[in-house]
Description:
Elements: E1 30-31, E2 59-63, E3 66-69, E4 73-74, E5 80-81, E6 90-91, E7 99-100, E8 104-105, E9 111-112, E10 126-129, E11 135-138, E12 143-144, E13 150-151, H1 154-157, E14 167-169, E15 179-181, E16 186-187, E17 193-194, E18 208-211, E19 216-219, E20 224-225, E21 231-232, E22 246-249, E23 253-256, H2 258-302, E24 308-313, E25 318-323
Amino acid sequence: GRHGGVGGDEVQPPPTIPPGPSSPRAVRVLLDTGNQAAASPGRRPQGAECFPACHPQNGFCEDDNVCRCQPGWQGPLCDQCVTFPGCVNGLCVEPWQCICDDGWDGNLCDIDVRACASTPCANNGTCVNLDSGHYECSCAPGFSGKDCQKKDGPCVINGSPCQHGGTCVDDEGRASHASCLCPPGFSGNFCEIVANSCTPNPCENQGICTDIGGDFRCRCPAGFVDKTCSRPVSNCASDPCLNGGTCLQHTQAICFTVLGVLTSLVVLGTVGIVFLHKCEAWLSHLRYHRVLRQKKDLLLHYNSGEDLAVNILFPEKLDMATFSKEAGEDDI
């Protein structure tokens, strides 16, 4: 049902109500709050008729079909009460009342109490509606939290034992003893131990760690950089390519010089062709000298003492060689 607001048994206009309009032709329904003597029940000018009739107690027929209402009443027939000035979310049964609608409270029905309608406060907490439409809980002894859902445990009863900014936790009051959640750089039951930042070693690739009080510094081996020695040094950082070469970053520096490569190919090709020609000539001479020696030895072996003349044809020229049994091999 409706509740709150203002109201009473006596129908008295509040002192803040201003006088009503004075032009009966401009406004068909008039509210006279200043001259009650002119608004006596049943009085109407002679010859004036109102149909339907004005409310017999709340107004009178002032002119044809014009009702002048008693203070606190309004409407075409003066049968509607006037609410208390400033009433926001309420109505009236008698003049100057402000009976609040459901979900609203206060003298002017301007306090929203719908936030507490769902009874959000647990463990016998008391819900208090705020003017903003929100609520807050007033918790019973031994409970805390926004909705009084947290039982006071060791962290609340005994205070936090945690050092260095550690957070006290007790499973929302259900734990028998408190424990500490330590920030980075601290350890121990109460966060009382300053942790070694180098344990475990954060430096990668066999970097050497140095603790600097809550932080660390890595001395990286050759070829690695970054805070934890995790990034390989670019092989092109030292600009190793000469003669206009372009360094391409892979697992090692690759120097590529177009002119140098082409020159090398031309030189190697030329040398290869010359070497092949010379090699073939050398092998040919070696083969013919071997045949010549074999023929000479054969002729000398079967010679009976007379001189012999043998014609030997070489690939590049014709030559004549004379062999005798007395001739030495050095003469050939």
